[in-house]
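Hi, can you check this record?
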Amino acid sequence: MYERDDDEREFDLRWADGAEHKEPSARARMLAARWKENPPAPQPFRAAADPVKPRRSSWISTAVVLGSVVAIILLLGYINFRAPY
């Protein structure tokens, strides 16, 4: 049963792949219709990127995170030290 289904499916795929005319995808049809009325402006290959604002140093972020972790550890240690047993 399974072998016959696989053979039929493979035949269907070969038949579909061998078609002379293949219909374009919905996105390709949509873009073709849109570009017919309003063609896109030409773009150079690998257009220059917009200037990027310099980011803050990653050291600042690292210091903030590590400082927060140390503060939490000290706070939990202080609370545990003050708690009566």
Observations:
- Residues 40 and 46 are 16 Å apart (CA to CA).
- The longest helix spans residues 58-82.
